[in-house]
Amino acid sequence: MAYEKLIQEFQERTAEAIGMGGPEKLAKRKAEGNLNARERIDYLLDKDSFIESGRFARSNRAEVKHKTPSDGKVAGFGKIHGREVGLVSNDFTVMGASSAVINMKKIKHVKQTAAKRGMPLVLLGESSGARMPDRMGAAGRAIIAQDPTEYQRLRESPWCSALLGQCYGSSTWYSAMSDFVVMRKGAIMAIASPNVTSIAINKPITAEELGGWKLLTGISGLADMAVDTDEQCLDAIKKFLSYLPSHHMEAPPEVAVPEGSDEASKTILDIMPESRNQVYDSRKIIKAVADKDSTFELKERYGKSIATVLARLDGKSVGFIANNPLYKGGALDADACNKVTSFMVLCDSFNIPLVFMVDVPGFLIGIEGELRGMPGKVINWMNAMTLVTMPKITVMMRKNYGQAFINMAGGKNADEIACWPMADLGFMDPAVSVNVLYGVKFEDDPERFKQLKAEVERDTSAWGLAELYEAQNVIDPRDTREYLIRTLEVHRLRLKKGVGEHLLRNWPTSY
Question: 264-425+461-491 has which CATH code?
Fold first, then answer.
């Protein structure tokens, strides 16, 4: 056969690249129940859609070239539900997927192509950090920072990151830049490993304490969700991308409305307690309003007094922001402010309208919030809201007190405002108002307290706001779904095929 030796060499080099770190390392991963880098790609992408970029790349250093198939990062392009994506899957079996000259060139190429051609970027993280001794000394400094826009985000297309093991170096940095981060429980993300960190701080620290799922999803908020397996992480990426367009210059995809989607809205009055002092889970309200089985909550464990949920109304993507009285009475704290700002940036950057579902007693007052710069976070939220160009619809469900009225898209911060009949628009809880304004407590003078409380409550109803045309409508809560669908039809008009102005496209990725 012509070219027999060349074809044989091609087949041998291909087998070596696909073989990654070798049978022993791959068998160990399998025994641990974790997918390898190429299995993750096969699970995530549509069958036979992957086209690899850089399969035959290797380290540029002679001493390790022989043991760096694909240089530890499998990269290329493929399809998820028929849509093209750019993808990098870190191969921990090859030198811990450490970052080096050649594999960073691969990342750069895939990243730039995704931006240029308008496709999402998916980063499957598991890495040990910078490769040594490549990065040591003056020569090591000369091979980094050669791309001044490496860490720039202009949100031309969505980025998703999965944390699937030890994640230091590039896996950390690119996750911190991503629009959606999902992690497998047991994975770790930090600037440096526990060993390095323990030496630096002269104190032992466990991997979970440093960057485990509870910290990342509940305290720092750098991960949007944690799941149990690699497969569940990859499923979450597929679902997240289903709400988003491939790039910022197109509207999100539309899907068929599931049968029975109008039924749950009839149960809203069963979810909302009649007593305004009784708590409930506002996410159940969102599920009742949205298309059936279409809700996808982000940052569920972080800033829990407010819920940020991607969903669909009439088959079209919508972002819900809802105070959740189940936690801290729905009061807004520093984490809640960060969470909402992040969500507004995501939705506006990728042409998703926002719906505010309001039941807020105000901001959580206290020393902790001031130590964390709470006033700045409140204004970050407000600044971001002024830059949102997608439609904003506000539904005032129950309490709407103080400055939080503004942050929850009150007044002219929304394109349309509707109130439920039980909406309460005081500056603070009426009982607290009487105490603050008049210095009267119920136990001191019950009759006078009741009289003053009635006066405070007199002009705080939904009807008062509607009479002043500061709310465009008062609606039966059970009609909320129909109202939102129809109102969004109106306010999507004149958008350039559903595309906004993207004034938040270069907003920081964390705050």
Answer: 3.90.226.10
